[in-house]
Amino acid sequence: MKASDITPNEYAPYYKQYINNAGNLNLLDAIKQSSETLIKLFDTISEEKMNFKYADDKWTIKEVLLHIIDTERFFAYRALRFARQDKTNLPGFEHNDYVGVSNANNRSKDSLINEYRAQRASTIMLFSNFTNNMLISIGTASENAMSVRALGFVIAGHETHHCSILRERYL
Description:
Layout: H1 16-21, H2 27-43, H3 61-83, E1 89-90, H4 95-100, H5 109-128, H6 132-135, E2 138-141, E3 144-147, H7 148-170
Parallel strand pairs: 1-2
Antiparallel strand pairs: 2-3
């Protein structure tokens, strides 16, 4: 199952950029590849540089990483609910509010990377055990339809998006 298999009725228009960022790989390959890219990128960033932000109103690198982790948790949770045929309209989340109280800047790079690895391993296990019928299941979040497979590609593409921003504006 590749990103090109997803139809526009499986996600809100806002998520198209993330699905496109995931490339046209198999779903699990996209999730694994984005993880490898992120780990390689963070291997080049020193502990001191992790506290850098390029403007006063922007996040630090630590906050960006924890935002990636938090967002993946939300999307994986939605995927689980939708795969289990839960028809509840799930609420959205305000990522700026979460970052503001995340305590990311008081954590070490290793702590954040370890949490990232744990979350990604959980996400890979979750998606690797979804059946094809589960992957095409559609639920509702923030008043928008979203399929399980679209959520998987959004996880990979959202991460790719932030890695690009880190390279362009932080490093």
